[in-house]
Amino acid sequence: MTDHAIRVSSHRGDSKVSPIYDPRVRSIFFQILTAVIVVLAVWSISNNVATNLARANIASGYGFLSGRSGFDIGFAMISYSSDSTYGRAILVGLLNTLLIAVTGIITATIIGFIIGIGRLSKNWLIAKLCTVYVEVFRNIPPLLVIFFWYSGVLSSLPQVRDSLELPLGMFLNNRGLAFPKPVWGETAWVIPIALLIGIVASVVVASWAKRRQMRTGEQFHTIWVSIGLIVGIPVLAFLAAGAPLTFDFPVAGRFNLSGGSVIAPEFVALYLALSFYTASFIAEIIRAGIRGVAKGQSEAAFALGLQPSTTTRLVVVPQAMRIIIPPLTSQYLNLTKNSSLGVAIGFPELVSTGGTTMNQTGQAVEIISIWLIVYLTISIATSLFMNWFNARMALVER
Amino acid sequence: MADTSVSFVRREMLDAKPAPTASGNLFGWVHKNLLATPKDIVLTVLAIAILVMIVPPAANWLFFQASWLGSDRSVCSTLVQGGIQPDGWKGACWAFVQDRFVQFMFGRYPLDERWRPILVTIMFIALLTPLLIPKVPRKGLNALLLFIVFPIVAFFLLHGGFGLRVVETPLWGGLMVTLILSFVGIAVSFPLGTLLALGRRSKMPVIKTLCVTFIEVIRGVPLITVLFMANVMLPLFLPTGWTIDNFLRALVAVALFASAYMAEVIRGGLQAIPKGQSEGAESLGLSYWQKMRLIILPQAIKLVIPGIVNTFIGLFKDTSLVSIIGMFDLLNIIRLNFIDTTWITPVTPITGLIFAGFIYWLFCFSMSRYSAFMERHLDTAHQR
């Protein structure tokens, strides 16, 4: 039967149908055509770029990265001055991008969870308040929210001379929030080690508790013991090492504050705006995830005699997580990409420091390639991690 | 089972329970929705506290204390700042918005040529409204007029030519630019995104690789880098001596960026269509394009309307980023006025930003409401 059918079709292909109508021939033809067009376009573009660069007297290559930058950066996590290289300026920008991304993601997740669960609340007032929050923030451009915090709220704070004095030795003015800088003493190295011991100990306790519960059915207060171990051991180590911590307090001088650390208003504006904006999307994802768990699941759990809190923890949340994680990841990536909006208010993140470098050196192609590589690496790394995580969380079916 | 002893069997009837409090009246509603449990009472008190803290001062600032009429900064600044308001006054400066409203709409478009953008707006509304109302017939002709004929007419009306005075794009600005960018972005990204989605699902490896690379690279980087790329690299790509308009660069960047996102949304719809539909179409003898146009795409697009509208909303919000490459869209033209000495007061920036936020919100919120309406309207086959 099969042989016959193949023979018939191949016979027809040989005699009647011209190769123009053969899908395989057509497919190969179109692909070659596309490839030729693409190669020609790339060749002509790179030719034009080379000509244009030669006319503008710009040498291509990444050699400029080791040149002296000559510009200052207001907010750097590693030591940087105008004598540092362009490469270091871009590294400072990259670290600031990552800082904004990490702090923003944590805050946005917390706010998003609260608002998302609030929208599902049976309390009418809370549900409506959370709905208003979501509908306001997700329908406004993030750039506008950044400007709102930056030129609307933060710049109306008092001048340095009239700084607001906050508790714990902090000062608030239009140059940012000054707070006491912790200075660690000689023996402070024991604290991270103690923290590590605490984490290892709590992992051991948790696995022991799980095995015991499997064997005997007895439950153990793993969470409280773990918190006690992870917090308690470092605190004990801190006290045992003779409390090696002093604070460098900011002091109000005549024109400026001296000492302490300062969080720049650009950082605060970008951080608040991205957190509030992304939180509105995360809230919707959380809500959709929890509503996506069938009602029968929690009813069945109640029928088995589980408490409401246990039902939420063991039945609803694990299933909701499966729905929540993929879109949540893309929101995290969006927040990371939106951190590039810092360029609008002069926060020195990757696009901002790269842009300054580009203006000074004219190395447009190289700078843009650095941007693309960095952002694509972040995206791909996150996707790979999330695919792995998703595969672990995925429903195991027969 | 038989040897299980029953330890308790109720012998007498229970008393009737009291009627539930939530029985339709206002009191019952309040009890059920606000004060059902002690936790709810605490939350309600907390929510009322937040409202009391936010709403009266906000209303006071926005409306009761606000300064509504005036022609310069004096109506919005206190005596110390050189104005007429009493010391300690704080309120919105709507006089500023009213004074500069026309500029916020059209930018620096010449005064005696303003009838042109207004005419374009009227044409746009006249063509868009029937397209949005499901009952109005002749959707095909309507779409053809809106997406093919209207852009050409609008371009010559706005830019000039055929006897009209030429108005260069640097003079364009305000809401007009925001709307043009969004409209072109939507009109280009929808067909281009569909093609990219089909290419990504194609069996030809060369075309598939090209589409996947384009989509993933564009989706992996922020819009600002794409805008910078269009702004800095497009001129480098062209042969020496060719120039390309700044506005056109932004248009290209926004349209390509939106296409990549649109492609992923439409791909989601294509994946949800069962294979039988495709096989059925093929067995009827339809060609690839006939199959896509008549069978697959109508079903796929209907499935993903919410995602498409979300992409449009994202595109509309993203147009605000062109201010970073120096174009005067709605957001940037408002910010430009913050440093204008006629209106420089402490409350001008925040008033302008709230106004801009309201305009953006109005457009995005209407789009999302319309999408919800369309979703219900088209949801015929999948009702359970």
Secondary structure layout:
The complex is a heterodimer of chains A (398) and B (384).
Chain A: H1 2-15, H2 23-55, H3 86-119, H4 124-137, H5 142-153, E1 164-166, E2 170-173, E3 176-179, E4 181-184, H6 190-216, H7 222-240, E5 245-248, E6 251-252, E7 257-258, E8 261-263, H8 265-291, H9 295-303, H10 308-338, H11 350-361, H12 364-393
Helix pairs in contact in A: 3-4, 3-8, 3-10, 3-11, 4-8, 5-8, 6-7, 8-10, 9-10, 10-12, 11-12
Chain B: H1 26-33, H2 38-64, H3 94-99, H4 101-106, H5 115-132, H6 139-159, H7 175-200, H8 205-220, H9 223-237, H10 246-272, H11 275-283, H12 288-303, H13 305-318, H14 330-336, H15 348-378
Helix pairs in contact in B: 5-6, 7-8, 7-10, 8-10, 9-10, 10-12, 10-13, 11-12, 13-15, 14-15
Write up this protein.
The complex is a heterodimer of chains A (398) and B (384). Chain A is an alpha+beta fold and 398 residues long. Chain A has twelve helices and eight strands. In chain A, the strands form three sheets. In chain A, strands 1-2-3-8 form a four-stranded antiparallel beta sheet. Chain B is an all-alpha fold and 384 residues long. Helix content of chain B is 64%, strand content 0%. In chain B, helix 8 packs across helix 10 (246-272). The radius of gyration of chain B is 29 Å and the shape is flat. Classes of the chains: A alpha+beta (398), B mainly alpha (384). At the A-B interface, helix 2, helix 4, helix 5, helix 11 and helix 12 of A face helix 2, helix 8, helix 9, helix 13 and helix 15 of B.
